[in-house]
Amino acid sequence: xxxxxxxxxxxxxxxxxxxxxxxxxxxxxxxxxxxxxxxxxxxxxxxxxxxxxxxxxxxxxxxx
Length: 64
Hints:
- The protein has helices spanning 6-28, 34-63.
- It has 64 residues and is mostly helical.
- It has one domain (6-63).
- The longest helix is centred in the C-terminal third of the chain and has 30 residues, at 34-63.
- It starts with 5 loop residues before the first helix and ends with a helix.
């Protein structure tokens, strides 16, 4: 099993936070078509799932 370090997890979380913000900005645009909106909603949901996973992983690493 691969071990991931606390700093790596934090880096991933930071990247996911930025990606989440990007999708939210795009979704605020009322002029995007439904296919694009659907793609970004799905991508945002996946980003949030990954972020939750890595936040839990970070908390476990921190707890020792």
